[in-house]
Amino acid sequence: MSGNTFGKLFTVTTAGESHGPALVAIVDGCPP
């Protein structure tokens, strides 16, 4: 499993299976 992180104001990290339905997206830096 590998992930990608991109963004400056907001950081979005995605991780999932290359050939599967699993997908995780984490958004960090959002104001409450």
Average pLDDT, all residues: 64
Structural class: mainly beta
Biggest sheet features? 3 strands, antiparallel
Spell the H/E element sequence: EEE
Task: Quickly count the domains.
Answer: 1
**Number of helical segments with 4 or more residues:** 0
Intertermini distance: 30 Å
Count of DSSP strands: 3
Summarize this, please?
By secondary structure, this protein is mainly beta. The protein contains no helices and three strands. Strands 1-2-3 form a three-stranded antiparallel beta sheet, with no helix packed on it.
What does this protein look like?
With 32 residues, the chain is an all-beta fold. It has one domain (1-32). 0% of the residues lie in helices and 53% in strands. The chain contains no helices and three strands. The protein has strands spanning 2-6, 11-16, 23-28. The chain has a three-stranded antiparallel beta sheet, with no helix packed on it. The radius of gyration is 11 Å and the shape is elongated. The N and C termini lie far apart (30 Å). The model has no long low-confidence stretch (mean pLDDT 64).
Main features:
32 residues, mainly beta, three-stranded antiparallel sheet, 0% helix, 53% strand
Task: Spell out the blueprint of helices and strands.
Blueprint: E1 2-6, E2 11-16, E3 23-28
Antiparallel strand pairs: 1-2, 2-3
